[in-house]
Amino acid sequence: MAADCAIIVTMIYLAADHRGFALKEAIKAWLLETGYEVKDMGAPELDIPDDYPDFAQAAAEALAKDFDHGKAILICGSGHGMDMVANKYKGVRAALCFNISVAKQSREHENANVLVLPSDWLKEDQAVEIVRVWLNAEFDGAERNERRLGKIKEAEENNFK
Asked: How far apart are the C-alpha atoms of 157 and 26, rounded to whole Å?
């Protein structure tokens, strides 16, 4: 049985800090135009002293209550901080993606449910294309990938007690 392979995404939890704010707004507009339901988890406005963990936590917590129908997209300057925070949550498989191939593979092989984007290294059109490909890619359900996801789940069970 493929892990989550039949998910119909109905909600995108979107979050960014000040460095990812402009890109978040552009991606949000594209998602809404494309027909996705978007829950903006912040930042609600450009605020230079804000902290990425606040927004990554909000999105990861929301997604953790909606794995059946949701995905998240997180954006900060490097992507590293958002990725680290999101992966602290049980069931979250966040992938820092900086091109289309990496994004597609994160869905096909690791069944990532969170896309993390580095706003410092992506132009708006590149980021939108990465989001499009990521949202349309599906987990391949290959035995080796199922086995590996099982090992991730086992590690979560042992470490999130």
From this structure: 37
Q: In the Cβ-directed half-sphere of 103, how many Cα atoms lie within 13 Å?
A: 22
CATH numbers and ranges of domains, the chain: 11-159 (3.40.1400.10)
- Whose CA is closest to 53, among 83, 30, 31? 83
Contact 86, 59 (CB under 8 A): yes
- pLDDT computed for residue 159 by the predictor: 81
**What is the predicted pLDDT for the residue at 160?**
66
Asked whether the CA dihedral 134, 13, 59, 89 is positive or negative, the reply is: negative
Catalytic residues: 76, 109
C-beta separation of 59 from 87 below 8 A: no
> For the chain, what percent of residues have pLDDT higher than 90?
88
Q: Is the pLDDT of residue 8 over 70?
A: no
